[in-house]
Structure formats: C-alpha cells, structure tokens
Amino acid sequence: MFTGIIETTGIVEKITTNGTNKTFRISSPLAQELKIDQSLCHDGVCLTVEAITNNSYQVTAIKETLLKTNLDQWQTGHIVNLERCLQMNGRLDGHFVQGHVDDTAVCTQVKTLDGSWEYTFTINPQFASLIIEKGSVCINGTSLTCFNVGPDHFTVAIIPYTFEHTNIHLVKENSKVNIEFDVIGKYFLRRQEVEQFKV
Predict the structure, then answer these.
(1) Which of these, 8, 139, 143, 23, lies nearest to 79 by C-alpha position?
(2) Which of 28, 33, 141, 146 could covalently link to 10 via disulfide, CB atoms 3.0 to 4.6 Å apart?
(3) CATH architecture classification, 8-84
(4) pLDDT digits (tens, 9 = 90+) for 77-86
C-alpha cells in the first residue's frame, strides 16, 4: 500500500527483454536503503526489488503489467517516480494507493499558469464513474485531485514542488501516463453492481 506522495525519482539505466517480460535496472538515491523482495512503486506500478548493486536495483514487469501500463514505452534515461510502501506509524498525506494501475490516460492539454500548471487527461469512458469532482486519482504514482470532470476527461492542478520533484514536468500533450483510480470508489461501484445482480 502506498500514499501517492513521491519520495524521489530514479533513472532507467538498462532494459532487458526476457520472453514477454522486461527487466529494468534503475539508479536511485533509494537503492542503498532497499531490500530484496521489497515492494516499490514505479510511476504508480508496484514492482518487487529483485537485486541491488551499489546505487541501482533491478525489477521485472510481466506481460500483464506491460499491457496495462506505459512501462512498455520506457527507454533508457526515463525518469521514474518512486515511492516506498506506506509505514503504518506515519501520516497518510495523499490517499490509499495500491500500485495496481487500472489503465493509461492520455494528456490532451498542458496549461502553464502564473506559478502552477494544469494538465488535462482523457480516459476510457468505462472508468468515468470512478472520477469525481475534487476526488483523488493517482497519475504516474502521484496522488492528485481532479476537477473539470467530464464523461471521458478530467484536469489536475500541479504546484511547483510537485512539478519539480516528480516526472510530471516531462508529460506533454499526447503523453501516456499510468492511472489508478481511488480504491474506495472502486469498492463502492462494485457494491452497487452486486446489489443490481440481486434484483
């Protein structure tokens, strides 16, 4: 479980294809603090640390992950948002994030304001009921608040700290990002569906 508050970023150093899987070697200041088998959130995707060498570590994404996320588009040099799992003795500053990406979204507009930025994304309309005005959404692992919500789109506002300390500044029009919808909303929607089955 994560919070969507990015700790730091990493850089993809090497990508190896093994059958339908891809293994990534990532350099990061966090590397020396990690442990093998530890869960780590990468652009919103929970991956398991497999090996650690000096200032880098290794993770593998399987076919299902590559199909559901933008990891298949990563190249060497890609900057990755990183977050370690939630400690239960700490404050929950973002929202509950599982690291289980639901889909990808496409950036359709980037608006530069006086001291902040607004990003608009389109989503698959089948997920429209999981986006609400002032609700939480996780984009590339970052907990953000939605507004200007429509049937297939929403906007988020980015403060300078987030812009500088995550990879959101690299997102341009037509960029594909990983998106995870609020888990509470997903359970509520599922409950409604089950109740309909009973009728």
Answers:
(1) 8
(2) 28
(3) Beta Barrel (2.40)
(4) 999 999 999 8
